[in-house]
Amino acid sequence: MKRVYVNERWCLGCHLCEYNCAFANSGETDMVKALQGAEIHPRIQVEGDNKISFAVSCRHCDDPICVKSCIAGAISKRDGVVRIDRDRCVGCFTCILVCPYGAVLPSPDGHAVRKCELCTDNASGEPACVRGCPNGAIVFEER
Amino acid sequence: MAIRYDIPEYEVLRDPQRCIACRVCERQCANEVHSYDPDTGTMKSDETKCVDCHRCVSLCPTHALKIVRNPDTLRRNAYWTGDTIGEIYRQAETGGMLLSSMGNPRPYPVYWDKMLINASQVTNPSIDPLREPMETRTFLGKKPDRIERNPDGSIDLSNLPPQLELQVPILFSAMSYGSISYNAHESLARAAKELGTYWNTGEGGLHEDFYKYAPNVIVQVASGRFGVHKKYLEAGAAIEIKIGQGAKPGIGGHLPGAKITDDVSRTRMIPKGTDAISPAPHHDIYSIEDLRQLVYSLKEATEYKKPVIVKIAAVHNVAAIASGIARSGADIIAIDGFRGGTGAAPTRIRDNVGIPIELALAAVDERLRQERIRNNVSLIVAGGIRNSADVVKAIALGADAVYIATAALVALGCHLCRTCQTGKCNWGIATQRPDLVKRLNPDIGSKRLVNLVSAWQHEIMEMMGGMGINSVEALRGNRLMLRGVGLTEKELEILGIKHAGE
Amino acid sequence: MKKLDYVIVGNSTAAVGCIEGIRSVDKAGPVTVVSREPYPAYSRPLISYLLCGETTEEKMRMRPADFYEKNGVNALLGKRAVRVDPGRKAVLLDGGESIPFDRLLIATGSRPFVPPMSGLERVERKFSFLTLDDAKALGAALTPESRVLIVGAGLIGLKCAEGIRDRAGTITVVDLADRILPSILDPRGSAMVRRHIESRGIRFLLGDSVAEFEKDRAHLKSGKTVGFDVLVVAVGVRPNTDLAAGAGCAVGRGIAIDERSATSVPGIYAAGDCCECTDVSSGQRRILAILPNARLQGETAGVNMAGGEKSFANAVPMNAIGFFGLHVLTAGSYDGEAWVETAPGVYRKLVVRDNRLVGFILIGEIARAGIYTSLIRERTPLDSVDFELLKHKPQLMAFSAQRRAEKLGGAK
Fold first, then answer.
1. Residue of A nearest to B440 (CA)
2. Which of C293, C396, C404 to mutate to test the interface with A (most CBs of A within 10 A)?
3. Which 3 state secondary structure label does DSSP give C121?
4. Among 3.40.50.150, 3.30.2350.10, 3.50.50.60, 3.40.50.2300, what is the CATH number of C120-235?
5. CB of B213 within 8 A of CB of B280?
6. What angle do CA C388, C392, C397 make, to 5 degrees?
7. Under an 8 A CB cutoff, do A72 and C322 touch?
8. What is the pLDDT of residues C109-125, one digit of tens each?
9. Cβ separation of A97 and C370 shorter than 8 Å?
10. What is the dihedral of CA B76, B77, B80, B85, to 10 degrees?
11. Which of helix, strand or coil describes residue A12?
12. Which member of A10, B26, B160, C157 has the lowest number of beta carbons within 10 Å of its beta carbon?
């Protein structure tokens, strides 16, 4: 299945993936309206600086440990995509405790959790982070 | 310093209603123009450092940035312009030669734009390139004087001098590793291979990683002989002796020390840190006989299997020089006009020395024909070929093919800010800083180059079809396909074309 | 080949994991679940969230209503298993029925431990806090004026306090230990969490215990007296091991299992809070009572019971728990060399031994803790990563470029 994969040597640490992700998941159609004056809450995170950098997002593991660890049964895998049911999530953060990639993050309200769902839960179509990357450092493909 | 003589050329306009303070501009500007103020949560700009490369404008996700010419000007003066005054201030301050990058930007006449192309109608039907075969393939090299036949009547090809086969009459011109980045070279190499044409190493040698692209590489031997060794000569599909270059006729190449990294130093076989200045002449070529000797040394060293190219700048007596070169044993002459680009050259030489390639080409082609030695050599022209119409006009004037360099770099992202000499190219092209070189991903770069040349190839086919011609060979030197507009008698005479209406 | 009969005693996380493990290998063999509680499998950790309205009984269910039917499971709800006959391979229920098995999973969990406390029988409204029924009963007994006394400042007692905070009048928590959450936090971390919980109006009386209960008053050993209307006893739990012991299984602190979730008796497996397994962070045998471990042990048992091959060999103690917005994430053991970093509202402790990260405590700033957990579970040698970077925060940058390419770039 297609996932967002990292080509680390091309990552410039520009963080455009984060801003595009935050915008795509904001529910707004205007990027300025969505992001101006606010702290962003992307589901992809850039580590590093302009020497070495790369973006980390949910790997949609074949055997996801987060699914098995959620005390509320809020995380499930459907059509290859690991998804979070925010209505069921009680914000215990066990998934954050177990994810080996650190790909699950607390929601802005500090309560439930958020992570990449490959833009299947917004109007973006293909993953917004990949579309917004200027240098092919993240790609959406099968490997 | 206490008195600021330098007026910033540009102003950075940021629309506060659009800026989301994502800091991409800050992260992507090697000149440190943009910065983030954590106290106010807003972005600030220092326009004195801006070179108008447009990296920030191109990446800003909300299109909040514009770079404009600074409206803050000195009193208008058509003679003592702001630029002229600014240059005097700089020299008064530094005592140094002014250095510039890329090609001559001054408003000299552009002869390409004063020539028009024919089309066929009624008396001579045009050819539809979508339905009929259209040959853009051409061969560069010495052509035989006569056709030799075998006993069975077939044409004898056994003694043919070495040729370069191009699928399209466009090659990538010389840009050295050092003036441009590793990733830029990789993009050119991969594109040349995919397009079935050639790229030129320039005077920086061939990086060991690119020997796999050797079938498509022309290796250059310049006056500094940087990077020249046996394997280098054996690797190339052809060898180019660089006598001169359009951007700086009469002097040698110049690579600022800041751009000489370990890798560049190793490839060029020179020390790190100090400027690499090539000598003005090849110190073993002081006459046409010396050139002939070098040409044949190179042929001996490579068993006569590779064409030898001699590259000269277009200067006043270019026709005579070309005639001498054509008799020296060279297979191909490359002529570089005064619009040719460079990584670094003294500004005055770049802007005032050399002549337009259109005139040089016409003069050389005519002279060689008159002396009946036109088939001794193929002609490649360079120096500001901007689009496919320039290519068609160049071939019609007598060229076999064109070299492009500036256009290729623009395809890779260059915005012609003309500050390559600082080594801080924000597009990853004219720099050696690893964090900047990263910005040019050869997967993307080579694709853009292939797109550009393929697009030009289609346009060339359309224009040729329009003329009723179906091969580049039939266009070559076909001056009747061109007419001049707004040209003087003398210009028309030198170009060898009639005026529109005639 | 004869279809295997599977019997599972227990109906929580481990049982659900076991059913799914079995069905991943064997689609046909009948599965019987014996559930003492009368409910379809639900998540016990959610009972405190139920009380404060964060979830509902329906959302607490672990699986959709048709889960048992779709998986060919006969769920006997409200039945208790009283004995296992290892010779005849049958489970005897309290109603006299005998359920034969080829493979048995014992997933009986734990029960609240109520120590003998003088006068406890005088207290009318006293509750444990482990099951859904406990929570419902407690909730029904609370009024906005209720004075609640919780004995036990561990995970269960404090989650209970959080859950009922807005439904009760006052809450006082008593514990013999000198600090709250003594099983997972050190003194400094514990103090930070305690201050946060106290700021919500909950009172702690630590280093103290109940000497004597009256109907609505507790006399503490220190001499203090606490009046209360509702009592919650959350002192601890005991694993339900009798069934396994009676079947001849080796029992240490809990039912002894290996990484295949097998007990010492062939054909009998165990999983969840009733078991002891190897904690790879310390090498010791411990009960690792946390939902993810129960799930993985159950699933492992199920696959092996059905003839497949699976092992779960990297279990560690771990906790993710939040109190009024302050989150505490811990894992592993704390026996080793410690690095501590603090800031207002933040506590980070990393414990290293023998070139490995063996444990951590994160309070407040808990992002990406799983990177630390993974280092503990994988027993990654610390000289193969940049530990200086990891001391600062969990990050994949600490791994080599090759490892990063494997984790993020699909490299093999």
1. A135
2. C396
3. helix
4. 3.50.50.60
5. no
6. 65
7. no
8. 999 999 999 999 999 99
9. yes
10. 0
11. coil
12. B160
